[in-house]
Design goal:
The model has no long low-confidence stretch (mean pLDDT about 85). The longest helix has about 60 residues. This protein is mainly α. Helices cover about 85% and strands about 0% of the residues. It is built from 5 helices and no strands.
Length: about 160
Amino acid sequence: MVVAEVLAGISLVKASVEFIKSNIDTAKDIGEIAGAVDDLFRGQDEVEKKRSKKAGLGVGDQLGIKHVAQEVIDARLAQEAMQEMRNMIDMRFGPGTWQTILDERQKRIREEKERIAALKKEEQLKRQETMEAIKVALTIAAAVATGVALIVLMAIYA
């Protein structure tokens, strides 16, 4: 199962590399190959995630030489592909283009994590406000019930 997922990651890396190689010379700007660059990153991320994710594998599979070798080789192939793309993109669009892409990607990842954290915080605040409102409503209901009970008791014993 996991080996197939890793293969999907490395296949995405390879397909992206082939697309970029075949289109880099005719691309007028980085936007024309941006989808393939994005797939390249996604493929590398899949390889790394699957490499670190051991769920569903027995200890024998995790430690078996075949599985370990496949993980290491796929990770190295992905790294080689990334380095090759770095060189090709920097040569085609100027030095530092690849680093600019990496920096922008990291910035967007960080912003997305911050956005998600802010949403979670907002949800937590809403839950707390709801709980406070429920507590206040229950306190008021208890006070009203106590008041009604006292009035009824006073009416009965008066």
